[in-house]
Design goal:
Pfam families: Amidase. It comes from Ketogulonicigenium robustum. This is Amidase domain-containing protein. GO terms for molecular function: catalytic activity. With 442 residues, this protein is an alpha/beta fold. The chain folds into two domains: 383 residues, Amidase signature (AS) enzymes, CATH 3.90.1300.10; 52 residues, no CATH class. It is 40% helix and 13% strand. It has an eleven-stranded mixed sheet, with helices on both faces. Helix 1 crosses helix 3, helix 8 runs antiparallel to helix 15 and helix 10 packs across helix 13. The protein is globular, with a radius of gyration of 21 Å.
């Protein structure tokens, strides 16, 4: 085979969805090593431009792939031989976890996070670690560039996780969200992503920021890929749904209390999505939230910063003012937040969670923006979590659906959400809506 033919084969394998790759390995149409080699070649070709990875050992990856190929067919898991990238705040027993912090560059926890352990149990190849904003909060930015335009941000904090999947450097990746750190990068980079219901997947083994918001999420090449990881992580609704058409579904468009911050690109994305739903036979209503919800963005800030003072106390005692300035201000509570402020914010959040479950119950899904607009110029501006914080605080499942392109040529996503623990139903609706928003293959 010519070098050109080998390159074409590698390109073909990196275009497989995780589901298709898993099926091809299971049927022995391809080997885990061939798939790993294809992704390593893609990374070698694109890493200088995208810079998604903080740790990648090709020999380690190939050894794991060879072990996967040598394993007996009986007992293989659903991800057998499929590479997965891991956000670099999530512990991996055989790789460093640096949090993109200058204070933890040699940190090696020697254990797997619960999520990584479940991936290994399912047969996944842990490809490497993906860049993040420092501590997945603020401070030092990821070196990662937006794969569609290197002058633009990939978003934060799961910068490398979104960019690597969007750029076909890995079929699946893990991220985390405390404000908008899974959904926002997905919209900016044009990737499928899921933030499940809070605490539906174990938090054990990744750097805590705000424990009542922190949520493990993931990226894939399709809705089916997201569902594949949902299976691995044991995500289930009480009542199984069998939605196979958009026709007859009831969808609510929820502008949320911050709709006035939607830029023209987001406004058009919502209009286009509503038109696609309507054309497919769905009914779309507007869901205006009660005025109490107007206070949720501020409540998110109060709760997050209060919990950060607990989560980062050990680091602050050890490192002090050498932490980045914004974190130092939070640790010193320069905003003057009181416990009374925290109780008020927590009570509002609890009330609105129950209220939204009731408001959303009559609908099959709720449509809302993923981001204010397309990716802003980077690297310091990682974009705003304006349209994400409310859903993170409310603990609702969210799926970013890619496929739309704004006037500036950049991708822009939309979000489907719904009541807590309606994750699988939301995924089913997203799987049907996705093809309506994506251009036909060339």
């Amino acid at each position: 085979m010519t070098d050109s033919g080998q390159d074409n084969m590698a390109d073909d394998l990196t275009q497989l969805s995780a589901c298709d790759a898993a099926a091809a390995i299971a049927s022995r149409a391809i080997t885990a090593r061939a798939l790993a080699e294809a992704y390593l070649a893609r990374i070698a070709q694109r890493d200088a431009a995208v810079r998604a990875w903080t740790y990648l050992d090709a020999a380690q990856v190939l050894a794991a792939a060879d072990a996967a190929d040598a394993a007996p067919m009986d007992g293989r898991g659903p991800l057998h031989g499929v590479p997965v990238g891991i956000k670099d705040i999530i512990y991996t027993k055989d790789m460093p976890t640096s949090f993109n912090s200058p204070h933890f560059q040699d940190y090696f926890p020697n254990i797997d996070a619960a999520s990584v352990a479940m991936l290994r149990d399912a047969g996944a190849i842990i490809m490497g670690k993906l860049d993040t904003v420092e501590f997945a909060v603020n401070g030092r930015r990821a070196a990662t560039k937006n794969p569609h335009d290197p002058s633009r941000t990939p978003g934060g904090s799961s910068s490398g996780s979104a960019a690597a999947v969007a750029d076909a450097q890995v079929p699946l990746s893990l991220g985390t969200q405390t404000g908008g750190s899974v959904i926002r990068p997905a919209s900016y980079c044009g990737a499928w992503a899921m933030k499940p219901t809070w605490n539906a997947v174990s938090h054990e083994g990744f750097k805590v920021c705000a424990a009542s918001f922190d949520t493990l999420g993931w990226y894939g090449r399709s809705a089916a890929d997201l569902a594949l990881l949902a299976d691995v992580f044991g995500i289930a609704d009480d009542a199984a749904s069998a939605i196979d058409t958009l026709h007859g579904l009831r969808i609510a468009f929820c502008p949320s209390p911050v709709w006035d911050r939607a830029e023209p690109a987001t406004q058009q994305a919502i209009k286009t999505t509503i038109a696609a739903l309507t054309a497919a036979g769905a009914t779309v209503d507007t869901l205006t939230l009660p005025t109490a919800f107007d206070g949720l963005t501020a409540a998110h800030g109060v709760i997050m910063q209060s919990e950060m003072r607990s989560a980062f106390r050990a680091e602050y005692l050890a490192i002090g003012d050498a932490l980045y300035p914004e974190l130092v201000d939070i640790m010193r509570n320069t905003a003057g937040q009181t416990r009374a402020d925290l109780l008020k914010a927590q009570n509002l959040a609890a009330q609105c969670r129950a209220a939204f479950d009731t408001l959303a119950a009559p609908y099959d899904a709720v449509l809302t923006p993923s981001t204010p607009g397309t990716a802003p110029l980077g690297p310091q501006n990682t974009g705003a979590a304006t349209f994400n914080r409310i859903w993170t605080l409310l603990h609702m499942p969210c799926v970013n659906i890619p496929g739309l392109t704004a006037a500036d040529g950049l991708p822009i996503g939309v979000t489907l959400t719904g009541p807590r623990f309606s994750d699988r139903k939301i995924l089913q609706v997203a799987a049907l809506l996705g093809p309506k928003l994506s251009p036909p293959p060339v």
